[in-house]
């Protein structure tokens, strides 16, 4: 008998069995994938019944998977914009009270023209008085009443663009309080009196500039959007030949003050403006005062000048020519239909 006794040659499972098993596995996988694919085209009607709608039956593309609305959402925080054109009214009353603010605000908002978007408050005037709770101020300068702080808070929390007027070097109280360190002297070594018998801080003295920068920082801390500097410069009336300038270049002293002020307010986001005589805008300079328009304009955001409506175009062009990025604001006694651009209506005397 052929082969080993009691045994046959063993060859394992045949290749046909393996092929059949592989085919079954492929069919299972295809069926599973097909089932998942079909799920996308099962549509439920109003009664809850399910039926199949294939793409070639409806002519529509497969439904796109909806994204979570919370994903890929870009959050943009936009800072409030300052008005490009100002229509400002002046708040009466120094020191300010809540009743004065409300009365002025109501009187301004009921007027039909202009549509006011800004309010100006005097926080330091040319007599040297300060109308907020300033620290490190010269003795006798701070003048407030019980509700001044609350009134100022109402102003800064309002929807208006808020402007704080701050007189600078014309300051009889502070100048007399510390003549050596901050006061402007005459050639005899005493305090200088201008043509109106008033005293000035000396722009060439670092302590005088530092004093004003410190007050401006405190005003910015109150929340005002803009600080309007007035009485910037040297005296232009009285015996000018008797002023002791200390060898200073007057224009350089004013430029230094504005540069130091910008640096002091850099972190506050407050606009810096200056009031200049209209004649400085048309002529370009006032040598006695130390004012040079081309040097001042790049250091401020706006330039104000007391003028009339018919002069607005000329003064606007002068400011733009000095620095294209600086705005002009006309200070007017009243509003009229011929007013163009930004304006600040002065308080009625």
UniProtKB/TrEMBL annotation:
Membrane-traversing stretches: 20-38
In this protein, which residues make up the domain named DUF4015?
Answer: 115-303
User: From the UniProt record, which GO molecular function terms apply?
Assistant: hydrolase activity
Listed A to Z, the keywords are: Hydrolase, Membrane, Transmembrane, Transmembrane helix
Record-linked InterPro entries: DUF4015 (IPR025275), GH (IPR017853)
Q: Which Pfam families match?
A: DUF4015
Q: What is this protein called?
A: Glycoside hydrolase
């Amino acid at each position: 008998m052929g082969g080993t006794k009691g045994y046959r040659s063993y060859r394992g499972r045949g290749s046909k069995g393996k092929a059949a098993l592989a085919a079954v596995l492929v069919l299972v996988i295809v069926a599973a994938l097909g089932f998942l694919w079909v799920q996308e085209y099962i549509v439920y009607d109003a009664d809850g019944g399910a039926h199949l709608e294939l793409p070639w039956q409806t002519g529509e593309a497969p439904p796109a998977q909806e994204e979570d609305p919370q994903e890929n959402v870009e959050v943009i925080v936009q800072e409030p914009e300052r008005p490009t054109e100002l229509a400002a009214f002046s708040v009466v009353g120094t020191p300010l009270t809540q009743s004065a603010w409300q009365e002025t605000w109501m009187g301004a908002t009921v007027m039909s023209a202009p549509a006011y978007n800004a309010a100006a408050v005097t926080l330091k005037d040319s007599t040297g008085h300060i109308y907020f709770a300033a620290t490190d101020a010269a003795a006798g300068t701070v003048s407030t009443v019980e509700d001044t702080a609350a009134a100022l808070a109402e102003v800064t929390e309002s929807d208006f663009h808020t402007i704080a007027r701050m007189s600078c070097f014309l300051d009889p109280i502070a100048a007399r309080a510390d003549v050596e360190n901050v006061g402007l002297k005459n050639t005899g070594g005493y305090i200088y009196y201008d043509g109106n018998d008033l005293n000035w801080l000396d722009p060439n003295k670092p302590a005088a500039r530092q004093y004003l920068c410190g007050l401006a920082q405190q005003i910015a801390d109150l929340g005002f959007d803009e600080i309007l500097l007035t009485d910037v410069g040297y005296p232009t009336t009285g015996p000018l030949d008797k002023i002791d300038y200390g060898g200073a270049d007057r224009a350089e002293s004013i430029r230094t003050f504005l540069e130091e002020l910008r640096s002091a307010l850099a972190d506050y986001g407050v606009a810096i403006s200056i009031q200049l005589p209209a004649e400085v805008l048309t002529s370009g300079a006032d040598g006695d005062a130390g004012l040079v328009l081309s040097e001042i304009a790049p250091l401020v955001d706006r330039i104000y000048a007391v003028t009339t409506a018919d002069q607005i175009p000329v003064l606007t062009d002068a400011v733009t020519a000095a620095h294209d990025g600086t705005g002009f604001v006309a200070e007017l006694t009243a509003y009229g239909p011929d007013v163009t651009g930004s304006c600040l209506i002065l308080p009625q005397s």
